[in-house]
Amino acid sequence: MTAVSRSESPAAAAPAPPTVPEPKKSPLSRFVTAGRWHWLLVGVVVLVACYAPFELAPFRTFQLAMAMIYAIALLGLNLIVGHTGQISLGHGAFFAVGAYTAAVLMDRWDTPYLATLPIAAVVTFVIGFALGIPVLRLRGLYLALVTLAIAIFMVPLLKRFDDVTGGSMGLTLRKPQPPEWTGLAEDQWLYFLALGTTLISFLLVAGVLRSRVGRALHAIRDNEIAAEVLGVRLAFYKTLAFAWSATFAGVAGCVYTWVIAYVSPDSFAVGLSITLLAGLVVGGLGTQWGPVLGGLFVMYVPNFAQDINQAAPGVIFGLLIIAVMYLAPNGLAGLVGRAAWWLGRRGRPVLRKGNTNAH
Q1: Which parts of the chain span the membrane according to its record (predicted)?
Q2: How many domains does the chain have?
């Protein structure tokens, strides 16, 4: 028998496996990666927001400013509901505290309007922390009822101290005037005040959620028992989240006072708290874009419902909420996320069967 050479061995004679060529990347997929879609969208939104007041009528500019104010309040509510998993129906009360703090300081003590913002934030933080200690020992429906009670008694409380709050008549203020060097109209200046406060608020919340505190809040939301076993102090972090949530609601109330230049107890009835929670759910719980979309929903949808049927705008408003939740169970932010995913998929070439070349 002749020996089989190494080159004629079965292993060497076996055909090499086919190589699959890597798909060519399109210029769009090279520039816009999955991680950059979010920041690209943020940049576009900010640019459009900065350009909008120069093209819109004053009333439309006012509406957009109000939408951003509601977005700040929903940003705080999202901290406690979306990121911590607790239910709150009382954030309209903290909105009122911030609004009246700014109004009283501006009306009674002639405080500069910009100085009222940090004061309103501190006041609502202290009140939120004090109320959060006993309130957050409850869970579920009981917590919702207690926070609802806070929103209910806020209106008669404001009416009782009429020497300070103006009672049922409220307080009428002067709107902040733009500095001469800006060259802006009054509505444009107020708009940019609201826009600047909104951007700073979102940056602060993003920093909190990326920190140890944010990880603790998410652990509490996902499983309180497991979080406690891992060493998370439930009472401390839940109370801290409630205080921060109240703070952003108070900041929104302060900017609301600047833009409206009038506060009245009836403007902060319990319906405001319910509307804020509904707007957050529609916008998207626990998402970054949820407060923005929820603020737009809270501002524009009631007006749209009023235009459709002036006799029963609440019915139209409720039906629209049901329709949105049916079409987008994860909120409007879920639709934005799906659109971003679709755009990212369109930017990547798909390797189909049959594109491989055997050698």
Answers
A1: 37-54, 60-81, 88-106, 112-133, 140-158, 189-209, 240-263, 269-299, 311-328
A2: 1
- Would residue 193 count as lying in a domain? yes
pLDDT score at 301: 86
| Domain presence at residue 329 | no
C-alpha angle 95/188/332, rounded to 5°? 55
Q: Could you tell me if residue 348 is inside a domain? A: no
d(CA 321, CA 297): 9
62-88 pLDDT, tens digit per residue, is 999 999 999 999 999 999 999 998 888
In this prediction, residue 345 has a pLDDT band, given cuts at 50, 70 and 90, of low
Range of the domain at 86: 73-270
User: CA of 258: how far to CAs of 62, 109, 233, 253, 345, in Å?
Assistant: 11, 16, 38, 9, 44
In which residue are the tokens 């497991």 written? 226
Q: If DSSP codes are grouped into helix, strand and coil, which group holds residue 262? A: strand
- Angstrom CA distances, 205 to 37, 90, 235, 244, 283, stand at 20, 20, 20, 9, 17
Total count of residues recorded for the chain: 359
Whether 276 maps to a domain, the answer reads no
Whether 230 shows a pLDDT value over 60: the answer reads yes
Query: How many helices (H) does the chain have, and how many strands (E)?
Result: 16, 2
Beta-carbon contacts of residue 160 (< 8 Å; ≥ 6 apart): none
